[in-house]
Design goal:
The structure holds two protein chains of two kinds. Chain A is mainly beta. Chain A is built from no helices and eleven strands. Chain A is globular and about 35 Å long. In chain B, strand 7 and strand 8 form a beta hairpin. In chain B, 0% of the residues lie in helices and 55% in strands. Chain B is mainly beta. The chains are: A mainly beta, B mainly beta. At the A-B interface, strand 4, strand 5 and strand 10 of A face strand 5 and strand 9 of B.
């Protein structure tokens, strides 16, 4: 079974802080994704990566960046956190045309 | 721009009822449509549909795709309280991409 682990289930940070969300997968998948999920808006793609050191912008990349130094780890970075980035963040991985597998999510609150 | 629309957005039924959840899509270079169930944590995969008219089944859940009318349905028969969840529909984007475009989800509540 694919295991996708997100480093924190709940996180509280202050406005202006630099925030790191970590995602680790154990299945050697090339493709990794970061989404945010908000009530009434569904899941929206922030960034994705098809390989180590490679990244592509998704639909809502503003205010975020990512890092993929190793195949199994994909980090989402909030450069200067703002209150409108309070959300549920979900990481997912996939191999080729297979369904994406999701982590349990990080509920991030920015005060 | 790809679009996936789910209806209804929320639904309350009694245990034992049968429900049908709808998903329509407008997607360039359509490849597949996926259904996920999300309870309190990670969305879990239910079905992946690529061909029209072929029903996929898993226990009390089934799903079918109509590529001519650009929609899919998810049926749940003899609903149980454990079926309460958000059901997400997503379309796999165009050629060479592994990105998904999600609908807003249908929140299903099953009451005893």
């Amino acid at each position: 079974d694919v295991k996708v682990t997100q480093s924190s289930r709940y996180l509280v940070k202050r406005t202006g802080e630099k925030v790191f969300l970590e995602c680790v997968q154990d299945m050697d998948h090339e493709n990794m994704f970061w989404y945010r999920q908000d009530p009434g808006l569904g899941l929206r793609l922030i960034y994705f990566s098809y390989d180590v050191k490679m990244k592509e912008k998704g639909d809502i990349p503003e205010g975020y960046s990512v890092s993929r130094e190793k195949k199994e780890r994909f980090s989402l970075i909030l450069e200067s956190a703002s209150t409108n980035q309070t959300s549920m963040y979900l990481c997912a991985t996939t191999l080729s045309n297979q369904p994406q597998h999701f982590g349990d999510g990080t509920r991030l609150s920015i005060l | 721009e790809d679009k996936v629309v789910q209806s209804p957005l929320s639904l309350v039924v009694h245990e034992g009822d049968t429900v049908t959840l709808n998903c329509s899509y407008e997607v360039t270079n359509f490849r597949s449509l996926l259904w996920y169930k999300q309870e309190k944590k990670a969305p879990t995969f239910l079905f992946m549909l690529t061909s029209s008219g072929i029903e996929k089944k898993s226990g009390r859940l089934s799903s079918i795709l109509d590529k001519k009318e650009l929609f899919s349905i998810l049926n749940i028969t003899a609903t149980q309280t454990g079926d309460s969840a958000i059901y997400l529909c997503a379309s796999l984007r165009g050629a060479g991409s592994y990105q998904l475009t999600f609908g807003k989800g249908t929140k299903l509540s099953v009451i005893p």
